[in-house]
Amino acid sequence: MASVASPVIFKEFCPLYYLLNAIPTKVQKGFRSIVVYLTALDTNGDYIAVGSSIGMLYLYCRHLNQMKKYNFEGKCESITFVKLLSCFDDLVAIGTASGRVAVFQLVSSLPGRNKQLRRFDVAGIHKSSITALAWSPNGMKLFSGDDKGKIVYSALDLDQGICNSSLVLEEPSSIVQLDYNQKVLLVSTLQRTLLFYTEEKSVKQVGTQPRK
């Protein structure tokens, strides 16, 4: 006799006031008071990362119940995408509305882990808003896509503190999603979905009909 599946129960959780209360609703810039909007979000078992309209990343550590802040030097511009990764070290990648991409290698209290905050920049390839970011599982590769269809591959050497970036693919419409696994990058744009084989530099489209 087949077992009866238990019913799915939807549960509404209350807002994370402990997190929201640690993020200011307004900041003062000279004589002006600027409203802070939350623009990007990513989570994992260790952190909650929240991007904002003032270029500030708020990173909440779930184990220590602590909030830390990271930002770009210079112009304050909206963060459009954030992507966390927990591998040997904890990493967070940030993309902005003007196409800036940065990676922060976070400090860890665990033995043998990173003891100094380090930052890597993806220099000058994107010229428009970052719409997608994807890590390789080991943190050595970062792919970034923008709303003009450009996809950039960044190779990170965390030990040497080096980040080398290059344009690997250019689509005619905005990138909406990226995912990477086993030398294959899954790319979704406003017009199509494709597989990009990073070793062969070849493209295989998923399906035959363009998106409406």
Automatic annotation (TrEMBL):
It comes from the Eukaryota. This is TCPR2 protein. Gene3D superfamilies: YVTN repeat-like/Quinoprotein amine dehydrogenase. It comes from Dromas ardeola. GO terms for biological process: protein exit from endoplasmic reticulum. One of its GO terms (cellular component) is cytoplasm. InterPro entries: WD40/YVTN_repeat-like_dom_sf, WD40_repeat_dom_sf, WD40_rpt. The gene is Tecpr2.
